[in-house]
Give the backbone structure.
Amino acid sequence: MKRLISLTAFAIACFAFTAATVKIKGSDTLLPLAQKWAETFMKTKSGTSINVTGGGSGVGIAALIDGTTDIATASRKIKMDEKLKLQEAGKTYKEIVVAMDALSVIVNPKNTVSKLTREQLEGIFTGKYTNWKQVGGADLKIVAYSRESSSGTFEFFKEKVMSKKNFASSCLMMPATGAVVQSVSQTKGAIGYVGFAYTNSKVKDISVSYDQGKTFIAPSLQTAINKTYPIVRPLYFYYLTKVETQVKPFINFVLSAEGQKIVTAVGYVPLQK
Amino acid sequence: MKKMIQMKRRDLLLPMITIIATIMMLFLVTQSKAQDNPLKEPQLSKEDSLGNEVEQVKSDVGLLKKVKISGYIQAQYQVADTAAAKSYAGGDFPSASDKRFLVRRGRIKAAYTGKLSQLVFQFDISEKGLSTKDAYFQFTEPFLEAFSLRAGVYNRPFGYEIPYSSSQRESPERGRMSQIIFPGERDLGASIVFNPPKTSRFNFIKLEVGMFNGTGIATDFDYKKDFIGHLALAKSIYDEKVKIGLGCSYYKGGWSQGTATYYQGITTLTNGTKAFVKNVGSVHAIANREYIGGDAQFSIETPIGITTFRGEYIMGTQPGTSSSSASPAAQPQGSATTTYSGTASGNIVIPANPADTTIHVSLPVTITATTTTPISDAYLRKFNGMYAYFIQNIKFLKTDLVVKYDWYDPNTEVAGADINTIGVTSANGKLGAADIKYTTLGLGLVYHWDNNVKIMAYYDMVTNEVTNVNNYKRDLPDNVFTLRLQYKF
């Protein structure tokens, strides 16, 4: 009898442990932030396990549809086609904005150009401008880096900066944000765009103008919060309503003052109350 | 003596086993040493070794990811108004039954998807047997990644309903018109697809044009190849809350007539009856098959779920036979007739009894039966048809409410009581069952259990034109209720 009780208790404990595991998958932009949130949350809630992986917003939402993740992270809104797929799978979901992100345009530190208008950025990424001297820089070939089309960052940049125009075929598509930063840091004529949190001393942020060059704003936490920096976007969590009780404690933590402090610490823009 | 030999054998067995075991051990040790020997193979660090293994696993997983096996089974129970009901909800009912279980579709699909290429096989397995559904490849050019070449057996690129998967469709079957003009949906051919990649702002455009046999999956029976083209535009607007799709299609082809006679156009006879005009052309002339169609889709997110409207209209000329307007898979033929002829090479026997009036013939007598199946004349009809769906998803119930309306008028030049055969001679062609218009109103509920399971309850209310042709002088009792369970993986 004792053995039976012990086995039952062990099984329940195993189940409880499994139930406490939350899987998070999706946006590469959100990856460092989600990892930090998970790390801090697991410290405060012993026995909770959170697995965080990237892959891109599209990959995260596909995993939500397939049922292989509990939370999909995305740097863009869920698409209508994805909503229809969730409907076909009999799944209802919830959308939560968890933070904001400023998108930084970065160049190699040796590049003399430090500010560009939206129109110039559009011209660079569409292939209209191929040399830095065309936008006030040195006589140096422009090497443009972009994220792949499955990336939410790609879609946001295309819509917000490029007026939905096509990227030039010469544009190099990178599989991850880290790869863009690394490539730009190693190539003198390079330019790319990444989430503000990914920038480091090996690359240089570009000040951007959305009023035909009257005012140029550099990306920073302050300019993003006071909404003067124009390239800011919301970051999302998507989860299925059937796992709400399982993921709610973590989401409450993310939205709490402590969770939003982490947002600032990692380099993202916290939600405004 | 025997004992001694047995003893010797036992004595020998042990040393032999020992020797074999020793040799094996030595061999293993040598192998192990050879592997450990740093001079023969360089020692890898734990990290390098792990890295190599991870790379190997990644490579294997990458290959496996390219191959995808999927499929679904649709098992259903159906009840019709009467036994032997003629139906487009999964085929006619058996002559003595108004109820049936059937596996409507049992699909298994294997697809290999490379960076710019795809190879697909799909089969249907049910109580009717095994049949091919898809067998095609697609290759995308590497420069713009916008143009693809597709060839093999696959869905005809016409309209929206034909290529729309049966596993996703909210009603059990495609509309009557789709089933008649495109039986089996697929055809053999090759097409070019223009669909810019996601990185392009023109990604919302899809144009597909191709040449096909025109006979479905069956082997072609004539020299005429058919053109099919479809242009589709689809875009999400209002912050991904609304999706709109528009499309237009064109079909131009036909099949080689087996006779010189064809019937086209309608005339009114002196007695007021309408009949086909009989024309004489030439054998192997092409019976024109030409359709033009337009389709539209609209989805909007509402607080209770996504609301979808979907519709398609097709009109054109359809070559068929006197009894059917369906697109043929083989040279159309008429009903078989059998004639008998005999010879008696024996003698007539005079009966012994004069009262016996029966003629007695002695053997042998030879009777020969000759069956002939005449090649059908072509009947060219102007037709039109449409379908419209209204689908309201109720997300908290995981259920779709479905209303579908469709009609198919195989001959727009006649209607109702005009469809009559009285007084029609061989100088004209008779109108008949193949000229009757049908409308179908379908009501259904679709419950999405999870990623795999879907349950559908659907009722088709079928109405035919009331004509003056026998068996169609009233609306036939051919409504069908379908309860379907689908498992998809």
Remarks:
- Chain A has two domains: 2-100+235-266, 102-225.
- The first helix of chain A runs from residue 2 to 19.
